[in-house]
TrEMBL record:
This is Protein P21-like. The keyword Disulfide bond applies. The lineage of its organism: Eukaryota, Viridiplantae, Streptophyta, Embryophyta, Tracheophyta. InterPro entries: Osmotin/thaumatin-like_sf, Thaumatin. PANTHER family: OS03G0233200 PROTEIN. Belongs to the thaumatin family. The keyword Transport does not apply. Residues 1-22 form the signal peptide. Disulfide bonds join C31-C226, C76-C86, C91-C96, C147-C198, C155-C165, C169-C178, C179-C185. It comes from Phoenix dactylifera (Date palm).
Length: 227
């Protein structure tokens, strides 16, 4: 029979999660053009919404979500059933339940993880399509990550695509850029380009220098397109 101590240890992680409420993400479009916001997370949950200039969308994500992302899509067209295609960030439908295709600027998160912390980042590993600000709106966390440079305008010719600046893995499909699971990667000319413009964003899969930020579990956030 389990001792009272072992039972306490067994239920401690669950107890931590019950202390934290679902996280609220306010997604704001400050771009001069329409953006189709999307989110998706582990468990094939997610959604999407058309945001015209100045509009806001509120997303609620369950405590304990081990991985998720919010991203902008551009150049989208959907039918009455919500099926369609986007020029960048496409997932095949308005309400995404899977991650979008490159190029897309990503706000990534994992909630209530190690020591009940949220882990957050902006990633350019799948390229860039829209400038982004990702910050906490909770009083006990001052996190603010930005990638607001003119990445598309300065994009190397080899990565230029309609509506964005693609990632080199998608373009070249080599281990040097794709960093297969179980291997390690070094910075490349292209990752250094992204890093020079957005130093606090992931520029390649093994970029862990000033790229991951934490907040206490239960924090709330805002993701702004074109801040």
């Amino acid at each position: 029979m389990a001792s009272s101590t072992s039972l306490t240890l067994l239920f401690f992680p669950f107890f931590l999660l019950t202390l934290s409420h679902a996280a609220t993400f306010n997604v704001v479009n400050q771009c001069s053009y329409t953006v189709w916001a999307a989110w998706a997370a582990t468990g094939n949950v997610g959604g999407g919404k058309q945001l015209d200039k100045g509009q806001t969308w509120t997303v609620t994500v369950n405590a304990g979500t081990t991985g998720g992302r919010i991203w902008p899509r551009t150049g989208c067209s959907f039918d009455a059933n919500g099926n369609g295609k986007c020029q960048t960030g496409d997932c095949g439908k308005l309400a995404c339940t899977s991650y979008g295709s490159p190029p897309n600027t990503l706000a990534e998160f994992a909630l209530n993880q190690y020591q009940n912390l949220d882990f957050n980042d902006i990633s350019l590993v799948q390229g860039f399509n829209v400038p982004m600000d990702f910050r906490s709106t909770s009083s006990d966390c001052s996190m603010d990550i930005q990638c607001t440079a003119d990445v598309v305008g300065k994009c190397p010719s080899a990565l230029k695509v309609t509506g964005g600046c693609d990632d080199p893995c998608t373009i070249f499909k080599t281990a040097q850029y794709c960093c297969p699971s179980g291997s390690s990667c070094e910075p490349t000319t292209y990752s250094k380009f992204f890093k020079s413009l957005c130093p606090n964003a992931f520029s390649y899969p093994d970029d862990y220098v000033n790229t991951s930020f934490t907040c206490p579990g239960g924090s709330n956030y805002q993701v702004t397109f074109c801040p």
